[in-house]
Amino acid sequence: MSKVNARTIAALVAAALLVLTVAFAGVLAVLIRDADEPDVTLTAYAHGKTVTVRPFSYCAVTMQDCRILPEDNVPGTVFTALNCAPDTPDCHRGRTAELEVPAGYPLQLSLPKKVADAPWLAQLVYLLPNGEKVDQVISRNDYPDRAMALTIDSQPEPDLRLIGVEFQLPILARDETGREFYVPHATWSINTA
Length: 193
Fold this sequence. Notes:
Blueprint: H1 2-34, E1 42-46, E2 49-53, E3 57-58, E4 68-70, E5 92-94, E6 97-98, E7 107-110, H2 113-116, E8 121-127, E9 133-139, E10 149-152, E11 161-174, E12 180-191
Parallel strand pairs: 4-5, 6-12
Antiparallel strand pairs: 1-2, 1-7, 3-12, 7-10, 8-9, 8-11, 11-12
């Protein structure tokens, strides 16, 4: 009789472990399904240092459901009239990432697939010796299709020095007069000075 009891006990223990494993897997699947989508980040590299660049602002392409708004609400930007989505309790303020890029060294950006596959543009800000700023805009069209890495020259001319990059995912918008223009629904900001 002890052999039957031992077999019965072993079968009950195995069945209990199976039930616990299935329950654990089910709870884990629900937690993963309901988890917040992590911020889409870029990786910036220059002169031996790497930083993870979190979004400066991030809204749905409808310019609603904003999860991240700029830390400094600069008047005259599209973000001044926006609020964080009411169902997004973890909505936070975006900041500019800091990465020193010495003159003559390139800035390298690594893009996640979600960004590389989207139409994007980047505003490069250069500084002249007299303090005047010079903007240059690059876009997805300037690189091979779906490029996941970019190299940006920090000193394309002897008198220019890269001081910042604003990477954007733009959408087409229209004002009340019918004029069409682009606004970013997501931005990443890097100070390179």
